[in-house]
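Putative C1q domain containing protein MgC1q88
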Amino acid sequence: MKMICCIPVLALILFGEMVEGTCNSNLGSSLLGDLIGMVLKLKGSDNGCCCLNKKTTPAFSAILTKVQSLGVKDTIKFDKVVTNIQNGYNPSSGIFTAPMAGVYQLSTTVMSHKGQKLVVHLWYNDVKMSGGWGLGNQHVQATINMVLELQKGDQVTIKSRESNNVYSDDDNYTCFSGYLIAQ
């Protein structure tokens, strides 16, 4: 995949050499033709481009629009999807499923109900990875940020540790987001 990103640079070097006259023009034309053929083959292959772009880079962001009552280890279902490139996030289940392998940045911010304790964890497949805790006389927010290397089909979700309420309203205090940062 690194070679794909280097091809434009190689083409420019080859073209520059041809313009300066330091290459045999027949050899330069042959090499340029071979280079173009290789690019076309790679473009048509399943490898695709190694560059991340907004059409192919998995990314999602979803918010909770109302209070959600949770039992022990219940998944928070962030019901309003804002972004869902590659359709990795399912609002019905609250689960993000990695559409491709890579390194992902994942984060959540959750708000406790006024005066109530809230403890949540980010789960990677069936493994509890990190937690957030909030308790106070007012609404309190907890945030979790993780960078995880995921395989295609791995799942990430936000679950409660115990029975409690997650607060949100039309000001969107509670959210879950993630995106691919490297392949």
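thats it. The radius of gyration is 24 Å. Residues 25-44 form the longest helix (20 residues). bye
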